[in-house]
Specification:
With 226 residues, the protein is α/β, with parallel strands linked by helices. Helices cover 28% and strands 29% of the residues. The strands form 2 sheets. It has a 7-stranded mixed sheet, with helices on both faces. A two-stranded antiparallel ribbon has the order 6-7.
Length: 226
């Protein structure tokens, strides 16, 4: 089955990461302090663990500090690779999860023929990382995820439900740009990229910091079609 995202090309858009990595470099461990309870993320990781044989290869895309995803997957006996745009976050992840391998890279670097070849994976987790991209780039990122997965590989994705595109918000003392979809549109984008949605849950979350508003978090568990 052809994948519509394969028809897109990074040459058709201008990548703009201005200030994004620098914001997370500055935030550092305060991210985990602001988001101390990650129930949806933990549940999605447990779904992966229950769905994969021990020793499976898993990519934590936008790994942040490595907590809780990379650490839990490593503890469960998986071969874990983490990727993040922020060098500061990668440094923290290496401290927190010495049993995993981490790379500082952009998701665009992982595209077919891109400069960073990390191999193929039985599963990919992308928790709140694709929302850091403008909407025009999200189908390309999903196409990259599909490329990174073995046939019928698993993919867990989380986004904040919001009808915004590359929108600037205050975030833990810095400013970042985020995108989001309403639930039905998110389903359409994910399915158009070649994934079957097999499970979903949502959580209303109030971060432990005054400059991050309460949000509706959507967690989608998927399988690559073909």
């Amino acid at each position: 089955m052809s994948n519509p995202a394969d028809k897109l090309d990074y040459s058709q858009i201008r990548l703009d990461r201005t200030g994004q990595a620098e914001a997370f470099d500055a935030i550092g461990n305060r991210y985990d302090e602001a988001f101390p309870h990650k129930d949806g993320q933990v549940a999605a990781v447990e779904w992966l663990i229950g769905s994969l044989p021990t020793g499976s290869r898993v990519l934590d895309l936008g790994c942040g500090t490595g907590l809780p995803t990379a650490r839990r997957l490593t503890e469960a006996g998986f071969e874990v690779v983490g990727v993040d745009l922020s060098g500061g976050m990668v440094a923290l992840a290496r401290e927190h999860v010495p049993g995993a391998v981490f790379h500082q890279a952009d998701i665009a670097d992982l595209r077919p023929g891109g400069p960073c070849d990390v191999g193929r994976f039985d599963a990919v987790a992308a928790f709140f990382s694709l929302l850091m991209l403008p909407r025009a780039e999200i189908p390309l990122a999903l196409g990259t995820v599909r490329h990174l997965l073995v046939p019928h590989g698993l993919f867990v994705l989380s986004m904040v439900e919001a009808d915004v595109d590359d929108f600037s918000i205050p975030f833990i003392g810095r400013t970042i740009r985020v995108s989001g979809y309403l639930r039905d549109e998110l389903h359409e984008v994910v399915e158009a990229a070649g994934f079957e949605i097999v499970d979903e849950c949502s959580y209303t979350y109030a971060p432990a910091t005054v400059d991050v508003q309460p949000e509706e978090q959507i967690f989608v568990c998927c399988r690559r079609r073909g």
